[in-house]
Amino acid sequence: MLPVLSLTSCQEEDEEEWVPNVDYSTYDTDNPAYHVAFLNIDTENEQPVNSQKNKDYRNCHVQMTSEKEEWNTSCTGRIRGRGNSTWKWYDKKPYRLKLDGSLSLLGLPEGTDWVLLANYRDPTDMMNTFVFILGERVGLPFTNHTRYVELTLNGEYMGLYQLTEQVMVGKGRVDIDEETGILLALDLNDGPKMSPKANDNFWSAIYELPVCVKHPDDSTNMQLEPIRQELALLEQTIQAHDLGQLSKLMDVEAYIDFLLIEELVGNKELTGPRSMFIFRDQGGLWTLGPLWDFDAAYGLDWRRMKYSHHFFDDPDLMVMGKNPASHKDSWKFVTGFFTDMWADADFVALVQERWNLLKPHILEDCWTETLKYYQGASNALDRDAIRWPIDKNHKTEIYRMGNWLAERVDYLDKVVSQYSEHTITKP
Q1: How far apart, in whole angstroms, are the C-alpha atoms of residue 35 and residue 53?
Q2: Which segments of 96-220 does DSSP mark as H helices, in order?
Q3: How far apart are CA 309 and CA 295, in angstroms?
Q4: Three-state secondary structure along the chain?
Q5: Is 266 left (phi over 0), alpha (psi -120 to 50) or beta?
Q6: Is-above-0.90 flag for pTM?
Q7: Number of neighbouring beta carbons within 10 Å of residue 145
């Protein structure tokens, strides 16, 4: 039985006031990974953390307290704000934490760089978590993990935060060769449009993607040229929808998995693009990922995104469209870098095969796993709602999220089965 319920019996009630009487205790577990830890951060001289710029890191002391004693940590590091719209628009701020030494936090892979996601726009706090679980299940490399903490900063309770790894090159992160590996962000907010004078970004040759070079992190104009050329070759291959050549340049299976997940949750950031990553190891294939940033998905009302928390509408709204290669019925134009391969019948056959393998795990496995995190965080979500009151109730919204996903799986299944009707047959 799927962990979702029908809303039909409550149609006449006020959606904003109604709270479903759902017992999620069956999804609870003794595993401390699902439970919320306490994170106390004190900056030097109680300096305020009021900027997301690198120059404004504040020295700090970090104290992590968990029900699992060996996860308790006391260390020093630096903290600053992070994010673009999430930092500028919302009262509850996200943070970037850089420890003075490489440590494991709450059982996650060791590292110095961590992120505290505020998830202020997400009324469930589970949107990223569900995608991370799904990405890990299908085997997408270097998928982020989730832990939840209640943060106290300079003595002030800041609410519930999602602790996860910083997307960067390094052991326990994007673990590719640090000398020759490449990590790129495809992000309108991080590319040449917003920073035209920076020497670490460019517009790609074919699809005019906004590219920011994240690694190597000391890029110069001379170093950018071979990266431009490599990316242009990949773009040319996609534009020609040449599956044979693409398999020599790119991890096709990961490419398909990545885009199916983006479409499953209806991530509108694909249209920018924003918050998309692609990497290549030494002598390896280009690979899309890691997955990142999903609070513009799940039926978000884009028109009100600056001031409200409206999600879980339109489970039949496609981001890439019913016919991705022609962008038919798409929500907004998505670059052909993500869609042109759908013109190839062999590629579409692979998409349909991967979807049929993925589909059974979405609700029975990944959504059920997400509910374990939700159950573990439910009391902290109550406290967070007092600290940061919004116009939604998390008990209602997690219920709606599950139903939206169930409807979305059914609808996407029909769309994927019809993809082959739109492809080009090569002579």
Answers
A1: 31
A2: 127-138
A3: 10
A4: CCCCCCCHHHCCCCCCCCCCCCCCHHHCCCCHHHCCEEEEEEEHHHCCCCCCCHHHCEEEEEEEECCCHHHCEEEEEEEEECCCHHHHHCCCCCEEEEEEEEECCCCCCCEEEEEEECCCCCCCCCHHHHHHHHHHHHCCCCCCCCEEEEEEECCEEEEEEEEEECCCECCCCECCCCCCCEEEEECCCCCCCCCCCCCCEEECCCCCCEEEEEECCCCCHHHHHHHHHHHHHHHHHHHCCCHHHHHHHECHHHHHHHHHHHHHCCCHHHHCCCCEEEEECCCCCEEECCCCCCCCCCCCCHHHCCCCCCCCCCCCCCCCCCEHHHCECCCCCCCCCCCHHHHEHHHHHHHHHHHHHHHHHHHHHHHHHHHHHHHHHHHHHHHHHHHCCCCCCHHHHHHHHHHHHHHHHHHHHHHHHCHHHHCECCC
A5: left
A6: yes
A7: 16
**In this structure, what token pair is assigned to residue 231?**
């990316």
pLDDT in single tens digits along all 427 residues of the chain: 334 433 333 333 444 556 676 666 666 678 999 999 999 999 999 999 999 898 999 999 999 999 999 999 999 999 999 977 777 888 999 999 999 999 999 999 999 999 999 999 999 999 999 999 999 999 999 999 999 999 999 999 999 999 999 999 999 999 999 999 999 999 998 888 888 878 889 999 999 999 999 999 876 666 889 999 999 999 999 999 999 999 999 999 999 999 999 999 999 999 999 999 999 998 899 999 999 999 999 999 877 777 778 999 999 999 999 999 987 777 778 999 999 999 999 999 999 999 999 999 999 999 999 999 999 999 999 999 999 999 899 999 999 999 999 999 999 999 999 997 666 655 4
Residue 355: CB atoms within 10 A of its CB come to 21
What CA–CA distance (Å, rounded) separates 286 from 184?
10
